[in-house]
Amino acid sequence: MSLKQERWVGWFSLLPAFLLLAIFVGYPMFNTFFHSFTEWDGVNSAFIGLDNFKNIVSNGDLPLMLRNNLIFLLSVPGILLISLTVSVLLHEEVRGWRFFRSVYYLPAILSSVVIGFLAKSMFTNRGVVNTLLENIGLGRFTVDWLNTVPTEFMILILCFYWQTLGQGTLIFLSGLSSISNELFDAAKIDGTTWRQRLFYIVIPSLYPAIFYFTIVNVIYVFVGLFGLVYSITGGGPGYETTPIDYMIYIQAFRSGNMGYASALSVFLFFIVMLITWIQLKISKRLEQ
User: Fold this and answer.
1) Which residues of 223-234 are buried (b: 16+ CB within 10 A; e: fewer)?
2) Low-confidence residues of the chain: pLDDT under 70
């Protein structure tokens, strides 16, 4: 087979994958971008130019949605540090490591909705948490967890951490396996604590894995928290816990403003692109 024929065979081999991407990714993106400039109810549409985008900026909901996304964004360093700590403890085979190594990934295989409804049942007024607090004599600390904005965010972030811990630990354990055990042994002989090994050996050695984990989860807090918000708070009270992706759902499927929801989707797309670009720039600067 000539070189030219091999190239054609290669292109035809990739053709099914390109077609599937065009149908299931390319067309929805183009359709959303087009309808962001229309007043669309899902059936009929009329071109209105930039009115949807002007409405997003002027109707007063944008600062609240950005604040909610910012709260979730600021929670990413926390799960990064927790995942790194758990990875180091498992890698160093502390007491009970066999049990924790067999169960740490279980929350990652559950759907967000399942985790959300489980957490919601635990934090109701007569749920497990308040009942436990009363039984151990800490009844004064019982609160209406699901009707107070700070505690609602606390529960959402707790569920996000619980669901993401398995993913992070798996990534960092894989990275730790590539670090020479002799390095850890030498550090132990020198009398370093596990915290010193975490900050002076593990974190510098796992920089690519840390960068990957951070990018994935920064994108996730903008586009992947729908299941948790839907099942725990429903975005309320009001829009107090509504991030942008949940507002897209509200506008599209509750209010029927498909054009406005499309414009919000485009707006969110460019926000995520901007943050990812900033992260890449920072990463290149740190590598230098």
Assistant:
1) bbbbbbbbbbbe
2) 287-288
Determine contact, residues 261/252, Cβ cutoff 8 Å.
yes
**What is the model's pLDDT at position 265?**
93
Q: What percent of the chain shows pLDDT beyond 70? A: 99
Task: Look up residue 28 and give its amino acid.
Answer: P
What are the start-end ranges of the E strands in 194-252?
none
Please report, for residues 18, 64, 149, 217, the alpha-carbon distance to residue 251 in angstroms, rounded to integers and kept in the order given.
Answer: 32, 15, 22, 25
Sign for the CA dihedral angle at 28, 29, 32, 35 comes to negative
> Is residue 47 within a helix (H) or strand (E), and if so which, with residue range?
strand 45-47
- For residues 165 and 75, what is the distance between their CA atoms, to the nearest angstrom? 13
**Whether the Cβ atoms of residue 32 and residue 266 lie closer than 8 Å to each other:** yes
38 phi/psi in degrees, rounded to 5: -130, 160
* HEC assignment per residue over 150-163: HHHHHHHHHHHHHH
Single pTM value for the model: 0.83
Tokens of residue 13, six digits: 């081999």
pLDDT of residue 20: 94
Residue among 255, 270, 169 nearest 222 (CA): 270
* Cβ atoms within 10 Å, residue 251: 22
Whether 247 and 56 have beta carbons less than 8 Å apart is answered as no
Q: In degrees rounded to 5, what are phi and psi of residue 210? A: -65, -40
CA dihedral 69, 73, 74, 77 (to 10 degrees): 160
Cis peptide before 237 (omega within 30 of 0): yes
Q: Of 69, 61, 66, 63, which is closest to residue 221 (Cα–Cα)? A: 69
Q: What does R_g of the chain's alpha carbons equal in angstroms?
A: 24
Token output for 73: 């964004």
Q: Residue 288: what pLDDT?
A: 67
